[in-house]
């Protein structure tokens, strides 16, 4: 017999006196007081059995089952008398003989009389074993019934990639032997445990009926995976939803609504195919039930109070979702197929099935307002997942929805991408983190059972494409997409699960793809057998309509009228679409910023006001930054020294990098601007410089964020250490920044080059977002950068990549800040309050105001640079005694390039050679970007010499001595004119 682990297996044994006092009582699992270790109390106290009660005379079968399984795991987990009873009963002793009272047990054990109790009475032994076997059988269906569910509409594939039937699932009478049961037992009545709802109002059923009801619950068109969830309440909730007899009932109105939605889903695709047969549209044919599925989730979520739904999805079915779920005007979709359509602005850089949408409308089922957003996304199918989650989190934050009751997300996935792309796993792992949770996402997988041309048996190692969701204990509902009523039911349950438990849930729509990867593709090349069957497959709308007509739910005339009505809607919209000559991207914005843009879609102002602060304000923020504004709070001794050093700087009217950051953040918070800083170890700072979150050294989890104690009416400051993810977290923060332009959202990499693993978000969303979707985004990337001999993985933030992606549009603000590492504590990397007072502005270029400014005509060399190399250059200049003849200018904003300021500096030192100096290798860094721009500025009147490391494949050396040799070489070059001339 299979041994299933139960809670009882972990219970502590009781003494005879304890058992006598607590017999039959229930004790819940309880946690220890805060700060203590968690302890588990028994669910049921396993007292000694009473002679007249074991199994036959009133003892609950659940009570016995719990003890029996506990005993199988550990005989010491039950009272000794039960241990003796089970040993003897399993050996064949009748209850009267198998039982021994606790009082007589000790002498019995002492005299070694146990063996004399074993007498053969097979009828009693079978009675015990049969009841336990039936309970094991029920559990087997709950765990593994989905493996034999009829999920594939084509009837040719096993959704779990395994044609074997689990041994413990009863598919024929000869399987009864696995449980020690016989065919004659099928008519016997067995008591049902409380861990099943198949009985409805009945507490016992014949074995034949038990098996039938289990098959109906778990082995038809719905397969339920949930028994891995370690929460009894959640498991019981799911059991009730699927096991209760006749639970899947639909009213006449429900069926007619479902049919109408199926008509819209199907006829929309057929209309597009008729009008644009030679166009790619990535249609939904083969999974038309997706549309009513999504509408059901939204309907039930709206009923439960949700006002805002944010969605992300790949390209398949996107146009259909836009048309029939979000209800975008059909003419706006149809005009996208017109090749003569002209773009009114630059937001025409992506195809129609990548565009997003934002729409507020009335939900006709609930008569409540609901806002629907479909986030624009690239062909990196799952890259949009964390973006959607971040946007959802932001919308929840700004409307005060702390529990996710008003704002929710729905994510659609393809089966191959869901299993194959790591960003899915990263996104799931954000789902329950306090600073990232959206309080439950409904995931819908359009399971084509194929990935482009790749057979699923070659595309994944897991049984199902959805197995990644098990990592967060999300229930998974597999459903045959050709059974619309089953689809609607599981979507209803999914919406209710999310509303009840605020945790993720997955709906796996097992379907097929009637066309190829797109409408121009030939799938028979690689899947001949599948597509032979698909060609024979009756469309799901036709099958469902015939079913309802046979039931009398609708007449054939009503069905045909519904089709004609929607066809007319499409034709009228098609006629209107002919009037659209220009594409206005305003119709395709997924995150509008009301009041931020002018009528032509541009920001109202791109000028930067003064960023200065009053002396009083600077001192106030500085005092908060150097204090612990909470009583009886013990901080680390090292932090005490840091705070004292900050206080000393404030007294001296000086700031270093960390304090300057504090000043910037604090001043924005006091102005009501929300700030969110996210990334790995950002609370303390990777280099132990920030310390925005203080931890009490004596009380676990007690923290203090001084920046949230600036003023009573300040905006909140959110600073959160992220999971060890770059791709997922940067996508999340990008999505958060989409929600509002009036916030500062920052993501910091531990080291600059760690953004390599988030490159997809940068390449697909941040850099081209304006051109593709007119999506402006205020995300700021903080990338620690600097060549310090720490090796290629801890040196370069690869600035050349960002510069290559810039288009030098003067209306594009900088998003990337290459933050220092060694400069965090550099004695010269300081600034005075005087540079931060009212009237001061961000300096795009910092000119040299030292001795060279006295006689600029005598300066023989003007070195342009950026970043920390400036401090190495000034040190070298000082050591060579060249302070009056070599000028060093810092370009603080590389893109858009400060042509005007570079020109002014070049003209000031009119007799000087021009040098660009960088510590990065020549084929990296800034040189290829700045050289042509400097030459354009000076009208190519002079050459622009290069001083820096030579070309290399890796960003930096990991050898300290090599690093120093390279540093010395390029510093010599920077101050040696002959070295420049050798380059010619």
Automatic annotation (TrEMBL):
| E.C. number(s) listed in UniProt | 1.2.4.2
**What is this enzyme's catalytic activity, as reactions?**
N(6)-[(R)-lipoyl]-L-lysyl-[protein] + 2-oxoglutarate + H(+) = N(6)-[(R)-S(8)-succinyldihydrolipoyl]-L-lysyl-[protein] + CO2
For the keyword Ubl conjugation, the answer is yes
The organism's superkingdom is given as: Eukaryota
Tell me the compartments it is located in: Mitochondrion matrix; Nucleus
Which parts of the sequence are annotated with region: Disordered? 16-35
Extent of Low complexity compositional bias: 16-26
Q: Which InterPro entries does its entry note?
A: 2-oxogl_dehyd_N, 2oxoglutarate_DH_E1, DH_E1, KGD_C_sf, ODO-1/KGD_C, THDP-binding, Transketolase-like_Pyr-bd
Cofactor(s) listed in the protein's UniProt record: Mg(2+); thiamine diphosphate
Major place of localization?
mitochondrion
Q: Which UniProt keywords apply?
A: Calcium, Glycolysis, Isopeptide bond, Magnesium, Metal-binding, Mitochondrion, Nucleus, Oxidoreductase, Thiamine pyrophosphate, Transit peptide, Ubl conjugation
Gene Ontology MF, one: oxoglutarate dehydrogenase (succinyl-transferring) activity
Which family, according to the similarity comment?
Belongs to the alpha-ketoglutarate dehydrogenase family.
- Please give the function described in this protein's UniProt entry: 2-oxoglutarate dehydrogenase (E1-like) component of the 2-oxoglutarate dehydrogenase multienzyme complex (OGDHC) which mediates the decarboxylation of alpha-ketoglutarate in the tricarboxylic acid cycle. The OGDHC complex catalyzes the overall conversion of 2-oxoglutarate to succinyl-CoA and CO(2) while reducing NAD(+) to NADH. The OGDHC complex is mainly active in the mitochondrion. Involved in the inhibition of cell proliferation and in apoptosis.
What name does the UniProt record give this protein?
Answer: 2-oxoglutarate dehydrogenase complex component E1
């Amino acid at each position: 017999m299979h041994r299933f682990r139960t809670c009882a297996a972990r219970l502590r044994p009781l003494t005879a006196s304890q058992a006598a006092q607590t017999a039959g009582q229930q004790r819940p699992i309880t946690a220890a007081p805060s700060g203590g270790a968690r302890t588990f109390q028994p669910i049921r106290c396993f007292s000694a059995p009473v002679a007249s009660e074991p199994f036959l005379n009133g003892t609950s079968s659940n009570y016995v089952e719990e003890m029996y399984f506990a005993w199988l795991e550990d005989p010491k987990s039950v009272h000794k008398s039960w241990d003796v009873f089970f040993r003897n009963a399993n050996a064949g002793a009748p209850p009267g003989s198998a039982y021994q009272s606790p009082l007589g047990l000790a002498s019995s054990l002492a005299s070694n009389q146990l063996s004399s109790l074993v007498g053969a009475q097979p009828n009693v032994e079978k009675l015990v074993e049969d009841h336990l076997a039936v309970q094991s059988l029920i559990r087997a269906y709950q765990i593994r019934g989905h493996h034999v569910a009829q999920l594939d509409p084509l009837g040719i594939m096993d959704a779990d990639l395994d044609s074997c039937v689990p041994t413990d699932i009863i598919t024929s009478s000869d399987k009864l032997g696995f449980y020690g049961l016989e065919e004659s037992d099928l008519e016997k009545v067995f008591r049902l445990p409380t861990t099943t709802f198949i009985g409805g109002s009945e507490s016992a059923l014949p074995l034949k009926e038990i098996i039938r009801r289990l098959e109906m619950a778990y082995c038809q068109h719905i397969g339920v995976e949930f028994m891995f969830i370690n929460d009894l309440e959640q498991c019981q909730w799911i059991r009730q939803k699927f096991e209760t007899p006749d639970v899947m009932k639909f009213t006449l109105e429900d069926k007619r609504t479902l049919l109408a939605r199926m008509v819209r889903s199907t006829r929309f695709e057929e209309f597009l195919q008729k009008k644009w047969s030679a166009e790619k549209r990535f249609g939904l044919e083969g999974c038309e039930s997706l549309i009513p599925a999504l509408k059901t989730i939204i309907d039930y979520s709206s009923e439960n109070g949700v006002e805002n739904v944010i969605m992300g999805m790949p390209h398949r079915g996107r146009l259909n979702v836009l048309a029939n779920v979000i209800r975008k005007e059909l003419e706006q979709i149809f005009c996208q197929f017109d090749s003569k359509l002209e773009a009114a602005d630059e937001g025409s850089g992506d195809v129609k099935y990548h565009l997003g949408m934002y729409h507020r409308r009335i939900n006709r089922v609930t008569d409540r307002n609901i806002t629907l957003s479909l986030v624009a996304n690239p062909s990196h199918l799952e890259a949009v997942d964390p973006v959607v989650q971040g946007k959802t989190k932001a919308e929840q934050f700004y409307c005060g929805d702390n529990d996710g009751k008003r704002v929710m997300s729905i994510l659609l996935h393809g089966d191959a991408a869901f299993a194959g792309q790591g960003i899915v796993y990263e996104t799931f792992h954000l789902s329950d983190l306090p600073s990232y949770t959206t309080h439950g996402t409904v995931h819908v997988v359009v399971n084509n059972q194929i990935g482009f041309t790749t057979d699923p048996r070659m595309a994944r190692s897991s049984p199902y494409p959805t197995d990644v969701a098990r990592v967060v204990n999300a229930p998974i509902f597999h459903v045959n997409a050709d059974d619309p009523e089953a689809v609607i039911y599981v979507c209803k349950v999914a919406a209710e699960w999310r509303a009840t438990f605020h945790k993720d849930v997955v709906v796996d729509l097992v379907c097929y793809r009637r066309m190829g990867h797109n409408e121009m593709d030939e799938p028979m090349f690689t899947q001949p057998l599948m597509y032979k069957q698909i060609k024979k497959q009756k469309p799901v709308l036709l099958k469902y309509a015939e079913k309802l007509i046979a039931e009398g739910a609708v007449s054939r005339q009503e069905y045909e009228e519904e089709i004609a009505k929607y066809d007319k809607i499409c034709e009228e919209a098609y006629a209107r679409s002919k009037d659209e000559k220009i594409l206005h991207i305003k119709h395709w914005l997924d995150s509008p910023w009301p009041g931020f843009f002018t009528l032509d879609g541009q920001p109202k102002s791109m000028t930067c006001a003064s960023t200065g602060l009053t002396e009083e304000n600077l001192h106030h923020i500085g005092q908060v930054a150097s204090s612990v504004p909470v009583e009886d709070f013990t901080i680390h001794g090292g932090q005490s020294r840091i705070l004292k050093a900050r206080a000393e700087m404030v007294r001296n009217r000086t700031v270093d990098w960390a304090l300057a950051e504090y000043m910037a953040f604090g001043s924005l918070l006091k102005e009501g601007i929300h700030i969110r800083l996210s990334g790995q170890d950002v609370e303390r700072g990777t280099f132990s410089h920030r310390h925005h979150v203080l931890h009490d050294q004596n009380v676990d989890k007690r923290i203090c964020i001084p920046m949230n104690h600036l003023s009573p009416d300040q905006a909140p400051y959110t600073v959160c250490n992220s999971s060890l993810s770059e791709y997922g977290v940067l996508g999340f923060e990008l999505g958060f920044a989409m929600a509002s332009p009036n916030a500062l959202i920052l993501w910091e990499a531990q080291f600059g080059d760690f953004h390599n693993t988030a490159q997809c978000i940068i390449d697909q969303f941040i850099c081209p977002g304006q051109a593709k979707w007119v999506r402006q985004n205020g995300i700021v990337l903080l990338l620690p950068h600097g060549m310090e001999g720490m090796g290629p993985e801890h040196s370069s933030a690869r600035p050349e990549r960002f510069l290559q992606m810039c288009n030098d549009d003067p209306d594009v603000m900088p998003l990337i800040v290459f933050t220092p590492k060694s400069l965090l504590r550099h004695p010269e990397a300081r600034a005075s309050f005087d540079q931060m007072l009212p009237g001061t502005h961000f300096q795009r270029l910092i000119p040299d105001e030292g001795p060279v400014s006295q006689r600029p005509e005598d300066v023989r060399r003007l070195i342009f640079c950026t970043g920390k190399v400036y401090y190495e250059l000034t040190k070298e200049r000082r050591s060579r005694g060249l302070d009056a003849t070599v000028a060093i200018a810092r370009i603080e904003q590389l893109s858009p390039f400060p042509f005007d300021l570079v020109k002014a500096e070049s003209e000031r030192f009119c007799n000087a050679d021009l040098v660009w100096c960088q510590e990065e290798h020549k084929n990296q860094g800034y040189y290829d970007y700045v050289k042509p721009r400097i030459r354009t500025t000076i009208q190519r009147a002079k050459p622009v010499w290069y001083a820096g490391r030579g070309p290399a494949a890796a960003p930096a050396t990991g050898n300290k001595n090599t690093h120093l040799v390279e540093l010395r070489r390029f510093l010599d070059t920077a101050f040696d004119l002959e070295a420049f001339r050798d380059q010619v």
